[in-house]
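Hey all, quick one. A colleague (J.T.) asked me to put the zinc ion job into the tracker so the inputs and the structure tokens live in one place instead of scattered across chat threads. No bug as far as I know, just bookkeeping. Sequence used:
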Amino acid sequence: MDHEQLGPVVDAIRAADSVVAMTGAGVSTASGIPDFRSEDGIWTEYDPNDFHISRFRSDPEGFWRERVEMVEEMFLGDIEPNAAHEALAKLESNGHLRTLITQNVDGLHQDAGSEELIEIHGNGQRVVCTGCEQRFEIDPVMNRVRDGAAPPTCGHCGDVLKPDVVLFGERLPEEDLYRARSAARSADVFLAIGSSLTVEPAASLPRHARTNGGTLCIVNFDRTELSDRAAFDFRGDVTEILPRIAESLDEGP
Ligand code: ZN
């Protein structure tokens, strides 16, 4: 992938009033986080039903014990933002990116410094109280569970804490979905990054952008559902392509 191939998309971003990006699992796996849905993903080892909202409600103690075990396995070692997270944060701080929508729950976009961020499936670095809805960092809560305090409860109201992510069987937050759809519809350029574009709502957001006249650019290892309809379809490593786009934008016309 050289600068010449990326030139037209760089020009499109530069000319756009509104650029919106959406990221999927491919951006997280580049930081060493296992994919949930792939052939050797997390759901081949754990039963998704154990992480369903109905299990959380009926057996919060068992839910939390298994959740801690799964999270420990997923986040082995230090998980850091990678070059794709950093390039997207830089696009925003340089005024080239208006909104970033992510399906990922690892919180790495926030760690990298992205601010206009819609985490449509939540953020697993936080917990939310099921009573007073206050949010807290998850690490001290995980330690309490390891020490035997399961399910963990809220220090303010005493209700049970829940990971601040959308569990199976839970609806996506309406307000976040509304914001994501509005952003997609108003996008002059929509960048779909590291997503196979098969799971809703990720599947429909680039379609919203395209039917409203937005230029669709896909960056992904593999072919996606929308590859045939994208103006630009780059197959490759998101941690190489995104930094090149960011660099080219800095260089000026
Ligand atoms: Zn509370």
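Adding what we noticed when we looked at it: Residues 129, 131-132, 134, 154, 156-157, 159 surround zinc ion (CB under 6 Å). The CA atoms of residues 19 and 135 lie 30 Å apart.
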